[in-house]
Amino acid sequence: MSELKKAVFKVHIAAPIERVWAAITKEGEVLPFFYNSVMHTPSLAPGSALRMRSLDEKYTAVVGDILVVEPPSRFSHTMKFTQYADDPASTVTYELTAKDGGTELLLLLDNVPVGTKSEGYMMAGGLFITQTIKDCVETGRPNFKNRLFLGMIGLFGFMTPKLCRTENWPFEKKVS
């Protein structure tokens, strides 16, 4: 790998900044915009481990470490897909700004390793994540197309690689 990539995804959400902040930092609940994962962390504070797990906690899809927590405007963490554990960690940052009676959400991706499977998933996922956060905050659920997509993910959950089992990704395991 020789290059790292940056990307920015932007969306306006017709809701107060505090509601958007609460949505992206919610723990212990299925988050459709994170592909129906549940965010787990010992503490929502810089330096804490972050894990995105299945509802039954059997699988962990994403691991990282929290870098910045500045309510209600900035949340940042490193991230790695567990099924591509050899790819270097990237950085994901959510920047929120109260604007035009709602919230402007920027999803910033940094240090994305070019030419990896992680790059492909992250570039495709940026649009899905920002649009689904908008839909969930504004209407309480993803749009129809994304609900179908999330349903398909659920149907094929049995195909998740053993490498992604949660016992392989304890909080103590550093990923950065």
From TrEMBL:
Pfam family, one: AHSA1
Top-rank taxon: Bacteria
Domain Activator of Hsp90 ATPase homologue 1/2-like C-terminal: from-to ranges: 14-125
InterPro entries: ASHA1/2-like_C, START-like_dom_sf
UniProt record similarity statement: Belongs to the AHA1 family.
Name the record gives this protein: SRPBCC domain-containing protein
